[in-house]
Amino acid sequence: MELRLGLALPTPNIIKGFDLDNHKPKETGGLGAWNKPSKRSFEQAFGNFKEECKAKTLLLWSGQPNEEEDHKDQTKTTFSTIDENDAEEVDQVMGWPPIKTWRKKIFRQQHRVGRTEYNRVADEENGGSVYVKVKMEGVAITRKIDIRLYHSYQTLTNSLITIFTKDRKCADDDHTRYTLTYQDKEGDWLIAGDIPWQSFIKNVQRLEIVKKWG
Amino acid sequence: MQKKMAYSFPDEVLEHVFSFIQSDKDRNAVSAVCKSWYEIERWCRRKVFIGNCYAVSPTMVIKRFPEVRSIELKGKPHFADFNLVPDGWGGYVLPWIVEMAGAYPWLEEIRLKRMVVTDESLELIAKSFKNFKVLVLFSCEGFSTDGLAAIAAGCKNLRELDLRESEVDDMSGHWLTHFPETCTSLVSLNISCLGSDEVSFSALERLVGRCPNLRSLRLNRAVTIDKIANILRHAPQLVDFGTGNYATELRPDVLANLTGAFSSCKKLKSLSGFWDVVPAYLPALYSVCSRLTSLNLSYATIQSPEIIKLVSRCPSLQRLLVLDYIEDSGLEALASSCKDLQELRVFPSDPFGVEPNVSLTEQGLVAVSLGCPKLQSVLYFCRRMTNAALVTIAQNCPNFTRFRLCIIEPKTADYLTLEPLDIGFGAIVEHCKDLRRLSLSGLLTDRVFEYIGTYAKKLEMLSVAFAGNSDLGLHHVLSGCESLRKLEIRDCPFGDKALLANAAKLETMRSLWMSSCTVSFGACKLLGQTVPRLNVEVIDEIEPPGSRPESFPVDKLYIYRSVSGPRFDMPPFVWTMDEERKILHSEFRHLL
């Protein structure tokens, strides 16, 4: 009896019909980044959106959901054979950490209401995407963008204009000026554009578009 | 016919004396004294606790104890809580209800944990036991609100209905209306697990209003904050209250109403619920805080400053359940405010995140261990730990009875020294001589098991995951822990040797669970066939273990002692290692 099951993921995961390309067992049984985006159809992606977010952002869509969406629902639609309880465990070890099923349900519900704490999520498996939250003053929804899709402040601001043009309420006229601000690693809020782009993308934790005074 | 010694007491006197002996252990001791005591005792035993529903059959229980009024049964293994036990494994209560319906017409109390309860079972309970008073379904499943309606309608003297953490299928919201207007006997009602539409609020209000002895009420999430005040005004005598949803946009009138309602509850000592908390409503609780002994905030996503504000007003707090939003700073505040604290449970707010989302570390637990001398029971989820911290905690709290530490990432070493956490846990078992329950985590070698086997003489339950190097680890535990009753292991390199060498030990324990270890099918068969009164069950959802070589490891293994032989209700993915029964089983399988 030399065979060691050791720490390989338990075999029942395989019978659940996982897409093995997306599901890489890790030797250490460690936890993968559960924020990993999954590809799915456009309709599905936007199905949960409120009124403000009608179909748009065609330029930037990379499969990453915006904050209001439930990540767990994504996982559910991609791996249709998984039942509710296992939705989060796609990338993780079965039954670990040891948290009761009903408590996990509550986490899921809470996260659905947009209580995730992450401002910046780096996703190694998707070629180093770095998702950063973007909020615009006066707009209810906080978005997430992949900062690595841009190579300069200009391209970033152009995109943001495109994204948020339709979000602005009608009361705001086109003469309102906005400033792009960002929060750095130390937690300080600064005006974007002062530091070289490469430093900026390493530092930026989140973005906020605020109305200019005066 | 027994000879009665001239100087022995009449039976009635003995029976009267025995009625003062409540604990099962003492009762068992009494029954072992002599035959006549055995006889007298068994006729007057009113309460039976069966820790594993498959350890004994209903027939045997009824035969020995014909006059039982209260029964407690546990079904699935503990790891079922974490989805490690497949659906359909077992733990059905119906066979028990069927037999007790005939044998115990005066049964008053049924308490079940991790069992499958059907509506049929509930209907049978409502029909069969005329004086039924207490139903507790802890982490059960398989029933719907239809079954609850039957209980409500049929049990005229119902005192306690507690559905904690159970999964209930929602058929309609009106099961509560089935409580007749004449029902005024409720003392405890816990419906916190029910979903959104499963409770008719007006029926609830009326029920609460007409039960003057109601002491404990735990609402479900669907009950909104504005309704709480009404409920409390109907039941100011409550001792234990579970709110529903504790959120809505701040309205001064609602806040004032709530504050008034809480302040009229002079006996309130325990609070729970608090789904979706809006912090602005927390001050409504302040009048209750000074008397509060138990507080469950483990669904509340409020941040550390708000938690601190609340907790520092609760000097009498003995029990706190909270999310890790409390952070180290909150735990320090807890340590300085709540000197009577006995139990602390800190749950992770983001268990599947890779990065920590809160500042909760080993420091928080150290602070509580220092500030709260009465601390006995800990459940702590965190992301880092050190041996030094564990040693300090052990020295500060030699009175621990339950210590469960879950470092979220498996095999995490001491983050300062990068060493295994053997020494830290070793200190826990060495200093805490009354430790009954221990859960390990982090990077651990066989060493930690050596410590456990050496020192943990009172340990009854041990949970192990991703730990150890070899069979020696398991051997230390099985050979050293004299009081061990339950052992559950997952993902450890433990195999045949330790198990076979300690086969006799297994009969002294309630159960052993091993999954993703390296125990071979051959060893399982050997155990099952050679150790009497031991049920060895192999769980494999992919293919029969017998279709592979005997040296192959089994996926999951559940071993438990039993006086009623292997069970007959095993699903296709569970195999018993008892040869004779297996033949019988395969013959009867088509009947199941």
Automatic annotation (TrEMBL), chain A:
One of its GO terms (biological process) is auxin-activated signaling pathway. Signal peptide: none annotated. GO terms for cellular component: nucleus. It is found in: Nucleus. Its main location: nucleus. Keywords: Auxin signaling pathway, Nucleus, Repressor, Transcription, Transcription regulation. SUPFAM superfamilies: CAD & PB1 domains. Transmembrane segments: none annotated. Residues 129-214 form the PB1 domain. Pfam families: AUX_IAA. Homodimers and heterodimers. Belongs to the Aux/IAA family. Aux/IAA proteins are short-lived transcriptional factors that function as repressors of early auxin response genes at low auxin concentrations. This is Auxin-responsive protein. It comes from Hibiscus trionum (Flower of an hour).
From TrEMBL, chain B:
GO terms for biological process: auxin-activated signaling pathway; pollen maturation; SCF-dependent proteasomal ubiquitin-dependent protein catabolic process. InterPro entries: COI1_F-box, F-box-like_dom_sf, F-box_dom, Leu-rich_rpt_Cys-con_subtyp, LRR_dom_sf, Transp_inhibit. Keywords: Auxin signaling pathway, Developmental protein, Nucleus, Ubl conjugation pathway. GO terms for cellular component: nucleus; SCF ubiquitin ligase complex. Signal peptide: none annotated. SUPFAM superfamilies: F-box domain, RNI-like. It is found in: Nucleus. Residues 9-50 form the F-box domain. GO terms for molecular function: auxin binding. Pathway: Protein modification; protein ubiquitination. Pfam families: F-box_5 (PF18511), Transp_inhibit (PF18791). This is TRANSPORT INHIBITOR RESPONSE 1.
